[in-house]
Amino acid sequence: MPRVARVRRESGHCDVRAPIVVAAFQTDARANGGLSSLSALLERLEAFLPVVITDRESDFTERWRRAGCEVHMWPDVALDGVRVPALRRLRRAGRLLAVNQRVRALLVRVGCRLVHCNDIQALLHVAPAARLLGCKVLFSIRSTQGVHGLRWRLARTLSHRVIALSAEMREHLERELTPFAL
Predict the structure, then answer these.
(1) Which run of H or of E encompasses 54?
(2) How far apart are CA 99 and CA 36, in angstroms?
(3) pTM of this prediction?
(4) Residues paired with residue 20 on neighbouring β-strands, in sequence order
(5) 3-class SS at 22?
(6) CA-based nearest residue to 124, from 88, 148, 100, 98
(7) The dihedral of CA 173, 174, 180, 182: what is its sign?
(8) CA 66, 67, 70, 71 torsion: positive or negative?
């Protein structure tokens, strides 16, 4: 049985739904199909109290707040303009560690046992802390284009469940993304 969050809302009443942390990082590509479908999902979650982690303000963050989500803006997650590959990797590793420490504190504060990652960047920034705390991790994949290699196998390993949009996608993921043994 999931723990229940008692969160005092701005309206003054307490919310007694099970919390789910949702991580969704926004890109400059503005394709946003994934964010649109995530928004529709968040607007319909009645049994859960969605707590969203994202990296920038947008029309989506406003929509999530109107739907009753607690939205955390972490702009330091976005990649910066460092051009030297070795420095970029080092900076990214430090950022992953720092964000996972913040995620851990948030998960403990809200009593979360379930995390949904809407993209691979969100997963890599959130799943390690969630797994260490014993939370279940869901990961959505909306396309199989470019889904192969070590980074994607790591993503599969960190996920308890991968959500694919079709049976064909699921079959591709099962073939290509064999989890590492933990």
Answers:
(1) strand 48-54
(2) 25
(3) 0.82
(4) 50
(5) strand
(6) 100
(7) positive
(8) negative
